[in-house]
Amino acid sequence: MNVRRTRLRALAVAPPVWHTGAMAKSKVAVLKVKPATILEDIERLTQLADMKAALDPSATTILKDNISWHYPFPAANTTPWQLEGTILALKNQGFADVSCVQNKTVVTNAFKGEDLNNYIPLFRKYNIPVLYNFKDEDMKWVDYRPKAKMHVLDNIFPHGIKIPDYFFGKNILHLPTVKCHIYTTTTGAMKNAFGGLLATHRHYTHSWIHRTLVDLLAIQKEIHSGIFAIMDGTTAGNGPGPRTMFPVVKDYMLASSDQVAIDAVAAKMMGFDPMSLEYINVAHNDGLGVGDPRDIEIVGADISNESWGFTVGDNGASKVGDFMWFGPMKRFQKLFFHTPLVNMFIFGSEAYHDYYRWPLKDKKTFQNWKSNTSWGRLFEAYVQGQSDRVIQPSAPQPAAPAAE
After folding, report:
1. 329-364: b or e for each residue (b if 16 or more CB lie within 10 Å)?
2. Domains of the chain
3. Strand partners, 248
4. Strand 177-181 to 226-238 pairing
5. What is the largest CA-CA distance in the chain?
6. Are 229 and 262 in contact (CB under 8 A)?
């Protein structure tokens, strides 16, 4: 039996409906976008979602992009237009001090990822310093005692929770994509903190991943001067994410200062009941954000009929994960993952993703997307340094009117 999905079904509630009334408790901006105006669309998206009010203009703003796989698989990673549009929106709204922080995982190479996904020319173009949370010269990992009661992190790390000292007192702006995830069903703004705030032993948390994300959001609210997310759903990821998915062009982008709400709206658009997802349900009940779509104000596009019917499914990695993290071998995970034996799984994951999936399957999907979709052609324009020819500049747009 799939223990992970059984647990999710146990949390199911009555299917929610969209609510756009004036009494909504939280706001998520959603826009239908297109390549020719994408930078303007992102600027308007941030205005609709009140980014300027959510972040402290006197503080450094950290861009936390999402590199789920260093290869440029559609929907897996922050897109170059998402990154560029966010940088321009920040600078246009008075946020002069902007940096980017990268992390690595056992299956991703940060340097390869920022290169293959075309971030490096944008960092140079807009003079964005890039720091790495795994480099001692960039930041140190320090002990942190959260004020909020932790669900699991204090038990997983009994000798102390460590987070990067660079994050304190700064804004954080997450840049996730709309996609499924083999362990959390959907992934977005809340999951995007996982790589930045937890060090190389973050795989210890996988059996308790949902409540780990809730704990991380509670910590973020304590250490950051502001939190915001801009989520790319221009191409969304159906199937066993966050890497080996079925990309589907959807032409949407979302933004919000409420990390729970933006994940809930994205989940609802994908066709899931947000409150049946443990990480959204628990964060909602802890008061860290709004997870019930009936209490979320949607501004921008009418998405009342959006329900895409996405399903997670399985791949080779998820089957191993279900067995080791959630199944009968869970009791032995300290033996396998807290000792040098973990290298066996790291090698297996790298072999599966980089030497089997990418060259034999997923590279072909990427090439087809690049040739046959408007977003793929825009990606190729970034590769060639010709994105300005695709994105047509026009006069600056006025600020979005305040929501009534």
Report:
1. eeeebeeebeeeebeebeeebeebbbeebbeeebee
2. 3-12+23-313 (3.40.50)
3. 236
4. parallel
5. 60
6. yes
Quote the tokens at residue 374.
């408007």
Do strands 226-238 and 246-256 pair parallel, antiparallel, or not at all (unpaired)?
antiparallel
The two tokens of residue 321 are: 């994960």
| Residues 366 and 74: beta-carbon distance below 8 Å | yes
In the block, which residue shows the tokens 């990992």? 141
**Two structure tokens written together for 154:** 């204090």
- 173 strand-pairing partners: 63, 228
pTM for the full predicted model:
0.86
Residues 62 and 308: their CA atoms lie apart, in Å, by 32
Q: Which residues pair with 231 in a beta bridge?
A: 254
pLDDT of 260-269, one tens digit each? 999 999 999 9
Cα–Cα distance for residue pair 227/189, rounded to 1 Å:
10
Q: Read off the pLDDT of residues 106-154 as tens digits, 9 standing for 90 and up.
A: 778 999 999 999 999 999 999 999 999 999 999 999 999 999 999 999 9
